[in-house]
Design a protein that fits this description.
The structure holds three protein chains of three kinds.
Chain A: E1 2-12, E2 17-28, E3 33-37, H1 44-52, E4 59-64, H2 73-77, E5 80-84, H3 96-107, H4 111-125, H5 140-152, E6 158-162, H6 170-187, E7 190-194, H7 198-204, E8 207-212, E9 215-221, H8 224-228, E10 233-239, E11 251-256, E12 259-264, H9 270-280, E13 283-289, H10 293-303, H11 305-313
Parallel strand pairs in A: 3-7, 3-8, 5-6, 6-7
Antiparallel strand pairs in A: 1-2, 1-4, 8-9, 10-12, 10-13, 11-12
Helix pairs in contact in A: 3-5, 5-6
Chain B: H1 2-15, H2 19-43, E1 49-50, E2 53-54, H3 55-72, H4 79-86, H5 90-93, H6 99-129, H7 138-163, H8 172-186, H9 198-206, H10 214-221, H11 225-257
Antiparallel strand pairs in B: 1-2
Chain C: H1 4-17, H2 20-48, H3 56-77, H4 82-90, H5 93-98, H6 104-111, H7 116-135, H8 140-168, H9 176-189, H10 198-207, H11 210-222, H12 237-263
The chains are: A alpha/beta, B mainly alpha, C mainly alpha.
Chain lengths: 315, 259, 265
């Protein structure tokens, strides 16, 4: 569905040159749901813009649904839906329903198909009570539901979402996520999502692409992240007495009174470390924790490129 | 007082950021100055003196117009009114110092920048290239500077009065467009007020808008400079009183209706 | 109304209709401005006898044609007016337009239709009619020439706005230059070109063809000759020169978009 080879984008001003996207390769198959994440300024939006045909790559190649986005922009736009979380595509002063009708006219959707699709979306996104309200009178969460409906009304084959859950409350986020999951499951809409909300990734994406400094530093399953970045397991021990703790094969993260948090790298067998722990100290309680995916990604964000190197070289 | 001076400088510096649009603004000003000059040069081929003005006086009018245009009709005209409508202005009320004084200080800072960079250099160049009647004695120069300063204050007051329409109606932009044509004409921006017929001329020369253009021209050309300054000062004070009255009413209204 | 562009314009009209009083006031303001501007040459002529040999109503005809054209252009041209279009680009709204299956230029022209300028055009036309009537030159033939002049002026203004929008892709402020071209051109065309130096006359007739759009047709209607080359004989050149000017503006627009694609905003 989407294929990028050596995709590169450089912005040059008179004084400086900035490589926003630096030789990115990936293939996204029909029907995939991919999270595209990375710290601010990593090149996420630039990549999305190249996929939509807004920006022309400096080098490399991008093909979306068999089309070169910049050259076949209008043709491609009929097959894709785009939502920019921070900007509205709806008509501000007019009722939501009118925005949908305009989308129908712009994309040339047949009236009957439109009625059918609108009914379906109204149901899924619970838009019923909002249809007659002007967009400016909608809350952020309501508006985002409207944006999503407008983006998928023409039944696009591919959907690009740039931070669709930004600023939404928990309930609205849940509504957006369940809708996107359903759309991907039922209609096989290929979806590419950028987000800073790790909940979006964990709940929606089967595959995740992590970009940093314009390069892809991870491409794989969400579960695979733990292995790839060697985060290891967590160990929480409560001792009978206060005092320093040191165990071979584990790193002490922090201590609080009699409780200590340690980390066991994947290179160590957890059972051995626990054994040594029990042999050296009087342990009241001990738990082993699988690392949280959110912690993993947060660490990648924090440590940026350093981790990119460690995943290749294993420092 | 120091606070207001700081606000004035903040306004001045804020305008200094728009250098590129300043260049084009000057180009537009000069272009219109040249067109108007050409028009009057052509007209004065037929007459030496009309309504007490000769060609030198009218060309001075043209270039003083170019100077004050950037002070009276400016790009930030909507900012105050828009902030009233959006409710942002309510925050101004809780800040220390008089609201009007603060608004005026910032606005004057901004228009002073326009005057200093866009207006005066043009006048100097035009004065060198063309035969204009500009003051040459120190008292004359001081009076012209004073007159332009009064013009800037009057323009700020006018902007406030127009902007304060936003306290009462969401259609404030409409009212402004509606009144703009009259302001433009009676202020003498299309034709010098001296050319107006009968009572209209009197309104143009002594009415509330006279301080924007007509009086600075009189001060520049030295036709009753002192009385012209007095007329300007008079209207500035009247407008200040009006601004105070409007602000007090608006404040009461905002307290009652919650903005 | 089968095209999406009609629907876009319709949507804008609907939102305008939601504040009718604002629309009324601004429309009235436009009428006042045109009336005041037409009053100016009458005052000058009453003091000086004529403007370069032109009577008051004759000069008013120039102003009327220019304002009619400008009004017609701005009805659709608001979306590419440098002031609005600069915001469109800066706030990323242009990115969104590029993701739609439409021509970006037509989108901009139709989605920001501004009804108040209908009244500027109508006021301009009223001024033209008044002058033609008081000069006794009104006939089907002259009406056709005047209508063509107004439409040509509209095309001229739109072309300058397109050039300005194309420049916005490079420098947001530089586009003000186009505003100078259209406002300055229209200001210049409001008076007989006899007033200006021959260099200015030629530039604003052939290079920036506002003189060809306003002045030459009015010369034709009044059946008089202008200075130098200028005269009714130039009228056949109007579609050619204006076509070139408009064509160049579209070329600039296309280059602007290519530039945008390679740099972002």
């Amino acid at each position: 569905m989407i294929s990028a080879q050596g995709l590169t984008k450089r912005f040059s001003t008179r004084r400086s040159e900035l490589t926003a996207v630096d030789g990115v390769d990936f293939d996204i198959a029909d029907g995939e749901f991919v999270g595209y994440v990375g710290p601010n300024g990593a090149g996420k939006s630039t990549t999305i813009k190249m996929m939509c045909g807004i920006l022309r790559p400096t080098a490399g190649r991008i093909v979306v649904d068999g089309l070169v986005p910049c050259d076949d922009r209008r043709k491609l736009s009929r097959r894709m839906g785009v939502v920019f979380g921070q900007r509205s595509q709806l008509w501000w002063d007019l009722p939501l329903r009118v925005s949908f009708q305009l989308v129908r006219r712009l994309y040339g959707v047949e009236p009957l198909a439109f009625q059918c699709r609108l009914a379906q979306l109204t149901d899924l996104l619970e838009l019923g009570p909002l249809l007659e309200r002007p967009v400016r009178a909608l809350s952020l969460g309501q508006r985002m539901r409207g944006e999503l409906a407008a983006a998928v009304l023409p039944a696009p084959r591919v959907l690009f979402l740039d931070e669709p859950t930004i600023g939404l409350d928990i309930e609205a986020k849940a509504a957006v996520r369940s809708f996107l999951a359903e759309l991907n499951r039922e209609q096989g809409t290929t979806t590419v999502l950028t987000t800073h909300d790790l909940g979006d990734i964990v709940q929606l994406c089967r595959r995740i692409l992590i970009i940093d400094h314009g390069r892809v530093i991870y491409d794989g399953s969400v579960e695979g992240l733990r292995e790839a970045f060697d985060v290891g397991r967590g160990l929480v021990v409560d001792l009978f007495q206060e005092g320093p703790v040191e165990v071979e094969g584990a790193i002490l993260l922090r201590s609080e009174g009699r409780r200590h948090w340690l980390q066991v790298p994947r290179s160590q067998r957890t059972a051995d470390v626990v054994g040594r722990m029990l042999a050296s100290y009087e342990v009241e309680d001990l738990t082993v924790e699988e690392p949280d995916i959110e912690d993993v990604v947060r660490r990648i964000y924090r440590e940026g490129g350093v981790l990119g190197d460690s995943s290749n070289g294993g420092s | 007082m120091g606070g207001y001076a700081a606000l004035y400088w903040a306004g001045f510096r804020r305008q200094s950021r728009y250098v590129a649009s300043l260049t084009v603004g000057i180009a537009a000003n000069v272009f219109f100055g040249i067109i108007r000059s050409a028009l009057f040069v052509t007209l004065y081929r037929q007459r030496d003196q009309v309504a007490g003005l000769d060609i030198t006086a009218v060309l001075t009018y043209v270039w003083i117009l170019q100077v004050v245009f950037g002070v009276v009709f400016i790009s930030w005209i909507w900012e105050f009114a828009d902030s009233v409508r959006s409710g942002d202005f309510a925050a101004e009320l809780v800040r220390p110092g008089a609201v009007l004084g603060r608004l005026l200080a910032v606005d004057l800072g901004r228009s002073s920048f326009a005057l200093a960079t866009r207006g005066l250099p043009q006048l100097v160049v035009a004065g060198i290239v063309l035969d204009l009647r500009l003051p040459t004695t120190p008292p004359g120069v001081v009076m012209l500077a004073l007159s332009l300063a009064l013009c800037a204050v009057a323009a700020s007051e006018l902007r406030f009065l127009f902007g304060s329409l936003a306290f009462w109606t969401p259609d404030y932009r409409g009212w402004w467009t509606m009144l703009f044509g009259f302001l433009w004409f009676t202020g003498g921006f299309l034709v010098p007020v001296e050319f107006f017929p009968g009572a209209l001329r009197w309104i143009g020369e002594y009415g509330p808008l006279s301080g924007l253009l007509a009086m600075p021209v009189r001060v520049a050309t030295g036709r009753g400079a002192a009385s012209a300054l007095a007329v300007q000062a008079c209207w500035v004070l009247i407008a200040a009183a009006a601004c105070h009255a409007v602000m007090a009413t608006a404040e009461r209204r905002m307290v009652i209706h919650g903005g | 109304m089968g095209s999406p562009y009609g629907a876009l314009a319709g949507a804008k009209l609907r939102s305008l209709a939601s504040s009718p009083r604002l629309l009324m006031l601004r429309s009235a303001g436009d009428v006042v401005i045109v009336a005041m501007e037409a009053l100016a040459p009458l005052l000058l002529v009453s003091r000086f006898g004529s403007i370069a040999g032109w009577s008051g109503p004759e000069v008013v005809m120039l102003i009327g044609v220019a304002r009619t054209g400008e009004g017609l252009a701005l009805i659709v041209g608001r979306g590419i007016d440098p002031n609005t279009f600069g915001d469109t680009v800066r706030l990323g709204r242009f990115d969104q337009i590029l993701t739609r299956p439409v021509s970006p230029l037509l989108w901009l022209l139709t989605s920001d239709v501004e009804l108040r300028f209908v009244f500027r055009a109508v006021a301009g036309a009223g001024v033209v009619l008044w002058s033609a009537h008081s000069l006794g030159v009104l006939s089907p033939g002259t009406a056709a020439v005047l209508a063509a002049a107004a439409v040509s002026s509209a095309v001229f203004v739109l072309s300058t706005l397109v050039i300005g929008a194309a420049m916005t892709f490079r420098t947001v402020e530089g586009s003000d230059f186009a505003l100078l071209l259209s406002n300055g051109g229209m200001g210049l065309a409001a008076f007989p070109l006899e007033v200006y130096s021959s260099a200015l006359r030629l530039i604003f007739t052939f290079l920036v063809p506002v003189g060809l759009c306003v002045y030459v047709p009015v010369l034709t209607v009044l059946d008089r000759d202008g200075p130098g080359l200028l005269g009714p004989g130039l009228l056949p050149l109007l579609p050619i020169v204006l076509g070139v000017f408009g064509g160049l503006s579209l070329l600039a627009w296309r280059r602007g978009i290519r530039h945008y694609e390679s740099t972002g905003s």
